[in-house]
Amino acid sequence: MPLIPDKFKLALDRDLTLARLHREVAEMRGGRDFLQLHEPLGYTGFPSNRLNYDQAAAFVERMASALRDLGVKPGERVGISTHNNADLPLGIFAIIRAGAIAVPMNYMLKGREMAYMMENSGAETLIVDPDVFSMNIKDRGRIPGVKRWIMAPGTGELPEGFESLDQAMQAASPEGPPLNQKPDDVVAIFYTSGTTGFPKGATMSSRNLLTAQKIVAAALPVGGLTGLFCLPASHVMGFGSYIIGVCVGLRAYYMRHFSPREVLEAMERERVAVFVGVPAMYAMMLDEGIDRYDLSSLKMLGSAADAMPASQAEEFRRRGNLFRLGPLRSKAFFVEIYGMVELAGTATMKVAVLGLEYPQGCVGWPVWPVRVRILDDEGNALPRGEVGEVAVKGPGVCQGYWNNPQATRELIQDGWLRTGDMGFKDRWGRLNFVDRKKDVIKCGGYSIFSVEVEREVAEHPAVAEVAVVGVPHPQKKQMPIAIVSLQAGTQATEEEILEWCRQNIAAYKCPRAVRILSPEEMPYGMTLKVRKLELRERFADMFTGGK
Q1: Are 24 and 75 in contact, with CB atoms under 8 Å apart?
Q2: CB proximity list for 390: less than 8 A, separation 6 or greater
Q3: Is the pLDDT of residue 72 over 90?
Q4: 440-538 has CATH 3.30.300.30 classification
Q5: Which residues of 408-417 are buried (b: 16+ CB within 10 A; e: fewer)?
Q6: How many other CB atoms sit within 10 Å of the CB of residue 115?
Q7: For a Cys-Cys bond, which of 289, 401, 498, 541 suits 514, CB 3.0-4.6 Å?
């Protein structure tokens, strides 16, 4: 066993770049298992169902060489939108290894949405798979700025105008291009979800994307275990989780999509020890029925992107097993991360282990060297206990929005990123999340925090999902309404739920109306959070005339 574990060596390497990461870990771990694939990869010369660290690094190197052979130049932006198999994160790394700037895009985006991101980033090369092209783009003319179309893997018949990535990789040198990147060079543009308008591209360097992830990996006692990966790598949370897995030395069971039944089956079959998901994934697995599966192998669970109900986390923790000492058994520990795209995914972290409990809304302590302040509307720091806007400073803060200097000036001021989140720091220095600033409802002189009301509405036994939003009102400025979907097998009317709210929630913040949508009608983003902007727009005229 080495004197200094691999993950600590990576954490201490200040000059590490994403272009070097896979080769560095391959030199440390070589033939150790890395990726076991739920669905085959499909590239000539590479195993279909399992890659070790050497083979993953070789894939990145060869694909980087192929991209350069196809004409991709250093500094060029390259879009990539494929289904979430392992070639997606490996492809993002390959674009970076080629010296270009990766522009990951969710495979569910339609041609118009993809065209906006490609045009905004100035990308002229797009890598897609057959399903993304045939189902979402359909016609190359829908994204007229693309000059180089690449099909991944491209082993079958190609549509007109496409290059085969697989054929290019077969002909390419196994050695990647010269390594010229520096830690602060821009290597990726991750687009926001566009909840407040058009998506904006957060520009990221290797230092942005690596620093906090390396530190988290060094702090987690899970090296060499089996983890399950099903988060979208096109989102910074999924990509950051992949980086943590690489740094910590996981054996990753990689799933192309999330299915609660298939994930639970894989947890039992593969004896999975580590799983990271968003709260909606945990809720769907609970609905599937976790008591029917043996989850005793779970040691660490993680969540981000939304508030994780403590009761749901506890349901999974008590079925896991961090360690056993004679007759004593410790529950799995649970890590919750607070972050956002512009922070490269990680700002604060809290760990539930050995009976440690947190108040509702607490998202933990800043991950060193991240710093957190709470600011008033004028940008002045507020004392502990007072609610204001959360501002963050640290190596994860993005370099700004691509091609949008005005939005960059509003986002980053004196090195501090204004998150748009409302929160406060308690006497222990922990950050407590209150609400998104844009989601705070101003009603008749009161400030109503939507997250607080959502927790209360969710207590109704028939409610499965709830989003509380403020809609315009001629006298009160805004009125809170609750949009809910129902638990499977339950029945309730809008008026019944509204009356329950009146009986259980303070009058000033109680929803003034309830609307029931089917789960299919709820607008979800790629991390399965409800897109409140769409709900505000949909119900904007509910109180027209002051009704």
Answers
A1: no
A2: 372, 373, 374, 375, 419, 421, 422, 423, 431, 433
A3: yes
A4: yes
A5: beebbeeebb
A6: 18
A7: 498
Residues 143-155 have pLDDT tens digits of: 999 999 999 999 9
The pLDDT, as a whole number, for residue 327 is: 67
- For the chain, the domains span 51-206, 258-436, 440-538
Q: Which among 168-177, 304-313, 475-484 has the top mean pLDDT? A: 168-177
- Nearest CA to 91 out of 41, 163, 131 is that of 41
CA distance 224 to 273: 10
Cis before 89 (ω within 30): no
379-420 pLDDT, tens digit each: 899 999 999 999 999 999 999 999 999 999 999 999 999 998
User: Three-state DSSP class for 514?
Assistant: strand
**What is the pLDDT at residue 195?**
47
Give me the pLDDT at residue 194, please: 53
Least confident of 22-26, 194-198, 325-329, 536-540: 194-198
Give the number of other CB atoms < 10 A from CB of residue 433: 20
Question: What's the fold here for domain 51-206?
Answer: Rossmann fold (3.40.50)
Strand partners, 148: 125
Q: Give the separation between CA 386 and CA 374, rounded to whole angstroms.
A: 8
